[in-house]
Amino acid sequence: MDSFLSWARANERRIVATIREMVECESPSDDPAAINRQVEQIADRWGKIAKVTRKKAKGHGDHLLLEFALPGKKKAGQLLALGHTDTVWPLGTLKTMPWREAEGRLWGPGVYDMKGGIAFFLYAMEALRELDIPVTRKVVLLLDSDEEIGSLSSRPLIEAQARKSNGVLVLEPGTGPTGKLKTARKGVGGFEVTVTGKAAHAGVDFSNGANAIVELARQIEKIAGFTDLGIGLTVNPGVIHGGTRSNVVPASATVDVDIRIARLKDAGPLEKKFRALKPVDPRCTVTITGGLNRPPMERTKAIAAWFGEARKLAAQIGIELEESSTGGGSDGNFTGALGVPTLDGLGAVGEGAHAVNESLFIDRIADRTALLAGLVANVV
């Protein structure tokens, strides 16, 4: 591990330069052309040490698969690394959040979530090559273009690669200022509950109307009661739409509901509760759409064991590695739900994902890069 750390420290300025190139190539989820510029940037630079395959995605930027040429004659099985090229930041964000290096940090849109983590892994692969460290498994990096909007087009590709793999490394940022790894993630989903009532003049014909907003309010009370903190299940009615004017009895109202579950076995019963919602006012109807988008990544014995190995490797370079669980989802949810050992949160250490203070700590670049190299070299 010391050799990996020394290499990463010696190449830190190169890593920083690459992160800057990536951050200054803005890549919002809803702009395929912008994402493809990022894809081309990565493919052109790293195609020298990897076989590059671009996967077209209708309505999105290309997904990118890199298979690295690494030392070691015989390769048995596969190790998969996951990242995403898309960010939540629209084109032009650099004008108000420019790239900068200050206060011991790198700043800019996407630097922490998750262009830093992608750069760390790419340089970890370069370290293995330059140090001539044999690797026993084929190593591939899949960068999808739609993670921030649900991974709808990339999920089949992610799952197909995971099924070929003995383990998965997810390059999302670590948790908190110490960069804890993520060994469990909640499943994520959403429901849209729509009430249809009957419009009427609020002054002239009030009694003939069926108020969809009033009915929806009754439904929201029920929905909020589905939360069960004891099992890590949360249900959040987050956005309401309804009505036209205050002098009209509203004919329609909708609530968008976020759901998070810690255990896959809770998904079915929760969905049944949503589907069983009935109107209190018989003149109204209730329509339910949606469901679970990402299954939970539950902390299995295999994940716990792999975290234990990562902790030992980190200790060799003076890092006390910790683990965490989170309510947020990632592509690791898909691979973990398939039973493939998955370590998440291996990317940048910093703060401010999706926020104006997005930044990563420069003094954690080298050890994170070294840890990734060590995990790939020591995977069993």
Which regions have little confidence, pLDDT < 50, spanning 5+ residues?
Answer: none
> At CATH's second level, what is the architecture of the largest domain?
3-Layer(aba) Sandwich
Q: Radius of gyration from the CA trace?
A: 24 Å
How would you write the strand order of the largest sheet? Answer: 1-2-6-3-7-16
The CATH topology of the largest domain corresponds to Aminopeptidase
> What is the CATH superfamily label of the largest domain?
Zn peptidases
The largest sheet, given as strand count, sense and whether it forms a barrel, is:
6 strands, mixed
Topology:
Layout: H1 2-10, H2 12-23, H3 32-46, E1 50-55, E2 63-68, E3 78-84, E4 100-102, E5 105-107, H4 111-130, E6 138-144, H5 155-163, E7 167-170, E8 181-185, E9 187-196, E10 200-201, H6 212-224, E11 234-242, E12 248-249, E13 252-261, H7 267-275, E14 285-294, H8 301-315, E15 323-326, H9 332-337, E16 342-343, E17 350-351, E18 359-361, H10 365-378
Parallel strand pairs: 3-6, 3-7, 7-16, 8-15
Antiparallel strand pairs: 1-2, 2-6, 4-5, 5-18, 9-13, 9-14, 10-12, 11-13, 17-18
Helix pairs in contact: 1-10, 2-4, 4-10, 8-10
